[in-house]
Amino acid sequence: QGKQKKVRKYAVMKRMISLRDQRINEKDRVKVPVKKKEDSSAIKEREVPQHPSCLFFQYNTQLGPPYHILVDTNFINFSIKAKLDLVQSMMDCLYAKCIPCITDCVMGEIEKLGQKYRVALRIAKDPRFERLPCMHKGTYADDCLVQRVTQHKCYIVATVDKELKRRIRKIPGVPIMYISRHRYNIERMPDDYGAPRF
User: Fold this and answer.
1) Quick check: 37 pLDDT over 90?
2) Which of 5, 9, 105, 122 could form a disulfide with 141 if both were Cys (CB 3.0 to 4.6 A apart)?
């Protein structure tokens, strides 16, 4: 004699009392929300982000020589590996005067990297670099750079980081400078600025 197989019933649930049930105490009972009728004559408000006045579609009128270039941590490190002088290579790329800008959080990131990146720190403290103060908490530079570029469209972002590039490509009118084949190149720069397109 074999054991009889017990077949489980599919999707059987324990029955629970609804929180709106009359048998539950008044204080534990869920109150039924009363829906307010919308007034059809009332003016409907919706918040639309204001577009910057400097943009003419993808064309950014605020960009022009001298170019202000926001430098990322890894851009300095890759420039050292490629044996490139930052300011000179930027000027060779854009054929104009360039002012490299470095934020406090990028400086903080380089300082955190320690003794191995002391050359990068020395380059970042160069007097030709413009220091930009940060008001936010923490030293995560990517968020800071994206926020700064969204607010002020006068910067070119110099980075090698794929994730940061992906985020900046979504912001219209912001060119990206990157390193390839031991030289600086620029991505998404209109021809009218006199800079080469690659």
Assistant:
1) no
2) 105
